[in-house]
Design a protein that fits this description.
GO molecular function: 5'-3' DNA helicase activity; ATP binding; hydrolase activity
Domain DNA helicase Pif1-like DEAD-box helicase: 456-672
Family: Belongs to the helicase family.
Shape: flat
Oligomer: single chain
CATH class of the largest domain: Alpha Beta
Organism: Cacopsylla melanoneura
Distance between the termini: 82 Å
Structural class: alpha/beta
Region (Disordered): 64-84
Strand order of the largest sheet: 17-16-18-19-15-20
CATH superfamily of the largest domain: P-loop containing nucleotide triphosphate hydrolases
Number of strands: 20
Radius of gyration: 37 Å
Helix content: 25-40%
Amino acid sequence: KKLSPNDIDLFISAEIPNPDIDPVLHEVIIKSMIHGPCGSINPTSPCMKGGKCSKRYPRPLTKETITGDDGYPTYKRRSPQDGGRTVNLKLRQGNVVSIDNSYIVPFSPLLSRSFNAHINVEYCNSVKSIKYICKYVNKGSDQAVFTISNQNDEIEIYQTGRYISSSEAVWRIFSFPIHQRHPAVIHLAVHLENGQRVYFSVDNVSERLLNPPPTTLTGFFELCKIDPFAQTLLYCDVPSYYTWNGKKFNARKQGVPVPGNPSVYKSDALGRVYTVHPNNTECYHLRMLLHKIPGPTSFLSLKTVDGQVYETYQAVCKALGLLEDDDHWDVALTEATVSESPGLIRDLFVVMLSFCHVSDPLLLWNKHRDSMAEDILHRLRQQSDDINLDFDERMYNEALILIEDRLYLASSKKLSDYGLPSPNRDNIPLFDSEYLRETSYNTEEQLRFVQENEVKLNSEQTAAFHQIIQSVEQDLGKVFYLNAAGGMGKSFLINLLLSKLRAQKKIAIAVASSGIAATLLNGGRTAHATFKLPLNLGVTETPVCSIKKNSTLAQILRNTSIIIWDECTMAHKAGMEALDRTLRDLRETNKLLGGITVVLSGDFRQTLPVIPKGTRADEVRASVKSSYIWKHVHMLTLTINMRVQLGGGKADADFAKQLLDVGDGKITNINNEIELTHSMGVLVDCLEDLINQ
């Protein structure tokens, strides 16, 4: 029976009690049942999200209780004008605010008075609320971690405890069901031929490779070979008539008899084939066929239509008329060839493959490959001075390489995943922009820069310069750390190293932990973008870079002579360790960082790795100094401040020294606070004086 508003008011209240009639209840409600306060009177309350209270307070004031259609009534909350009470509440900030009934959490006077605690009581009368509350009350025990400490003992003992409510205890004592699911849903595997998952251990690896365990799909094929009734069923219908015991399907012995098949029984069990993303082209179309063709006996039988065997499941789906044609994609590419460059046409083709679920990508490629390779033909004609040169497989292969590189960036897929031919990557693509970027520096300009600036190096810079060049030329694969504060000429030295090696036609990669720092390096980029570092470095136990072995970037790293990583002090150690694992794999060596000479630079006085909600210890733990790589690092230190020497003033030198003292923590008082002297700056009275100074 649905309670009336008056009945609800007998059990639940959302108003401040009368202190004269029931002072005890009044005190309990004021202490335990006021929400917040929040809203305009306290916008910093923890419940405020986007300028609004996430618990929907303050609630509307009303003279009487109103029952809603969704099962949650609007409780009686009288305004002060209608006889409602108010109380003054002191906030943490010290200011006093007036609270009315709109901030009172619904309560039961009996329970609140009995337990003197925060007990929220709500009235629920619809399925919308009951279906949630029943599961919530009986969802299982919670856990809490608490500490027992002794002021006279430095050791703290941590224990884990659990508690259950009395209602849950009774529920479990009487063995009432907690959850129930009906009907049974049987998951059915879907995979390509010899593409199922195989679990093995060291002891049975050979056996599992030779005789992989059957799956529900291979078991379905075997069942259809021997059971005439199974040959009439689709894959998803099999669990209604058969049970799977891990090795094969067996006919059910209970259920509703099937007319005309007295030995066959049907249950209410459902079969559901695992979903497959359309980008997994062959497996996606295999799943489609399993929902359309009854009683297949093998993978080959699924590829056979009217006696003709097709090469792909996609082709079978097309032959059966299960797919839409690609006429609209063909029209789009045809229109693009009229006005767009071959590079943009390739990009359009990549977008179609990645997001448009093209039914026959190979047909589109064969029809429009000349348009996608037109710029390659043009450049080869210019190089060979042969105007009669025509398209050949080499040019199409170059176009496929460019398309696959773009495709991998867009969706981490290969062309073979879409039924397209895989390009031959034995040689570096002639026109790959990424490879050209690292190998096409003007050697004359680089050499001129070295000749003009090498003589400007001071003694410390010269020593560091020659040690690093020696490691590169002798293939020593050393790892250096260039320790230099601001103004020591670190960027100047790094750019000189880059020009020196690029003038010798060597590949020198320059990266930095931040985009601003990368702009100061010749050809510099961020480390994350260059090495494709994972974003969740602090979560993955052994992260690796997302670089394919057959990609252009992998070939660049195989031929790289030096890597310079500026502002490495800001980088998470896991990023550098991921690069180490990747370089060892790509270069097929166990040498540190693949045997490449690496120069790390930065200043540990500045920002360390940023760890969300982390402590100082977390930042130190994430620093490169905590990495296993650090013990192999050769230290190179720059202490001569080149900015001061160029400025030439004693005041500049003193100022630079004071800055270093601040970074070293030498200028602190007894409260561990930094004290700056007047010599560190000039006090001004207004903005104009600051500009003039």
